């Protein structure tokens, strides 16, 4: 396998507007290609280094859904269970309705939010962290809002639609950790370390950083079109204080670390050395498209054309629509600063791609990267 086209693509995008990029490709549990280029710190002209730590943002969601699926396969939770069986504040939800003339009203939801709705982004939530109930909870907690308190605050906001009827990218995966904490009893971060990252030997993945890890945290940038260059912007707006462990966007990691987790999913839930984090049946359920025809109309991101949505992941359902060289059933997700995961059990292929640029150009980068990689396989 000659991955020269992949390295050429990385060189192209880092010459273009992305400060640095790195890709790690595993095939049949062996690293077959790893390449990085660009500057981790533009001001200091410091090259991207080994084991650079960065924000995963929404790639956190794959791990969060894996954690919650562990409870499903242990019989602790059913996907069909009402969420209120575990988080009582979700027992009676209101739905915001807007009439054709623009009048808005609240009506009691006719359907309960189910556990599955959290996985599939069909609960009716928004992604508005500025919502009054959330901001009030942050203020009341004086910057120490807990994961459980966040979920309670979100329950006070009206839903955008009846649960289970539409798809909307939202805070669903930030409620899953509260569900896990109630069912299991451990803090979400502790659960993740003891049940997933620890068994897989992932020492650089977590919601907080040690002093040594902080020194390895790569600066984050945002491209400024007016100035024609990337400007440093280190904040993560999805972290709402020191106690909040965001299942939707809160993890730090490295390429070397997170590829271990992704590869375990490629192996249908088991690492090469035998650490099991999910059953093969759970991985199959995760990568099954769970959207109805109407929901597919909502899940209409152009760079996800030809993909459905499983339990927290995109999943390839139509080559004719996607134009992707990957097989049907290839799945994964990405993150706000541009990281991208390809998990492919049928080809035994795992890809961890990372960059650290907000306004990340993923509609351009991700489909091209995927096709360049599959075009190199033999």
Any overview of this molecule?
With 378 residues, the protein is of the alpha+beta class. It contains 13 helices and 15 strands. Helix 2 (60-73) runs parallel beside helix 6 and helix 5 (147-154) crosses helix 6 (172-184). The termini are close together. The mean pLDDT is 96.
Q: Concise description?
A:
The protein is α+β, with helices and mostly antiparallel strands. It contains 13 helices and 15 strands.
Class derived from helix and strand content: alpha+beta
Uncertain regions: pLDDT < 50 for 5+ in a row? none
What is the level-2 CATH architecture name of the largest domain?
Answer: 3-Layer(aba) Sandwich
Number of domains: 2
Percent of residues in beta strands?
15-25%
Mean pLDDT: 96
- What is the chains' assembly state? single chain
- H/E series: HEEEEHEEHHHHHHEEEHHHEEHEEEEH
Helix tally equals 13
Shape by Cα distribution? globular
What's the CATH topology label of the largest domain?
Answer: Beta-lactamase
Strand order of the largest sheet: 3-2-1-14-13
Strand and helix layout:
Layout: H1 4-16, E1 20-27, E2 30-41, E3 46-47, E4 54-55, H2 60-73, E5 94-98, E6 104-108, H3 115-120, H4 132-140, H5 147-154, H6 172-184, H7 188-197, H8 211-215, E7 221-224, E8 229-232, E9 252-253, H9 255-266, H10 280-286, H11 293-298, E10 307-309, E11 314-316, H12 319-322, E12 331-332, E13 340-344, E14 349-354, E15 357-358, H13 362-376
Parallel strand pairs: 7-15
Antiparallel strand pairs: 1-2, 1-14, 2-3, 4-9, 5-6, 7-8, 10-11, 11-12, 13-14
Helix pairs in contact: 1-13, 2-6, 4-5, 5-6
């Amino acid at each position: 396998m000659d991955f020269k086209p992949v390295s050429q693509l990385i060189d192209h995008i880092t010459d273009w507007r992305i400060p640095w990029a790195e890709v790690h490709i595993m095939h049949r549990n062996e690293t077959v290609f790893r390449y990085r280029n660009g500057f981790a710190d533009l001001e200091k002209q410091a090259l991207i280094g080994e084991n650079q730590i960065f924000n995963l943002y929404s790639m956190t969601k794959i791990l969060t859904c894996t954690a919650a699926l562990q409870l499903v396969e242990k019989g602790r939770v059913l996907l069909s269970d009402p969420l209120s069986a575990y988080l009582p504040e979700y027992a009676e939800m209101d739905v915001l309705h807007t009439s054709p003339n623009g009048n808005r009203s609240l009506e009691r939801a006719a359907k309960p939010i189910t556990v599955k709705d959290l996985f599939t982004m069909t609960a009716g939530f928004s992604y508005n962290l500025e919502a009054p109930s959330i901001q009030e909870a942050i203020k009341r907690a004086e910057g120490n809002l807990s994961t459980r308190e966040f979920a309670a605050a979100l329950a006070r906001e009206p839903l955008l639609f009846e649960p289970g009827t539409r798809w909307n990218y939202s805070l669903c995966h930030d409620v899953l950790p509260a569900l896990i904490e109630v069912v299991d009893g451990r803090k979400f971060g502790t659960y993740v370390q003891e049940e997933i990252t620890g068994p897989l030997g992932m020492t650089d993945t977590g919601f907080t950083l040690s002093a040594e890890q902080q020194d390895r945290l790569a600066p984050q940038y945002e491209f400024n079109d007016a100035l024609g260059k990337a400007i440093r912007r280190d904040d993560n707006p999805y972290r709402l204080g020191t106690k909040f462990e965001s299942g939707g966007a809160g993890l730090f990691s490295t390429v070397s670390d997170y590829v271990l987790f992704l590869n375990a999913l490629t192996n249908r839930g088991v690492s090469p050395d035998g650490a099991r984090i999910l059953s093969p049946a759970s991985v199959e359920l995760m990568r099954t498209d769970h959207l109805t025809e109407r929901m597919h109309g909502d899940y209409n991101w152009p760079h996800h054309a030809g993909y459905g949505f499983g339990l927290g992941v995109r999943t390839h359902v139509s080559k004719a629509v996607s134009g992707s060289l990957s097989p049907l059933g290839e799945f994964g997700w990405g993150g706000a600063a541009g990281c991208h995961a390809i998990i492919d059990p049928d080809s035994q292929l795992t890809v961890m791609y990372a960059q650290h640029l907000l306004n990340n150009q993923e509609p351009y980068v991700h489909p091209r990267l995927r096709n360049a990689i599959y075009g190199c396989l033999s």
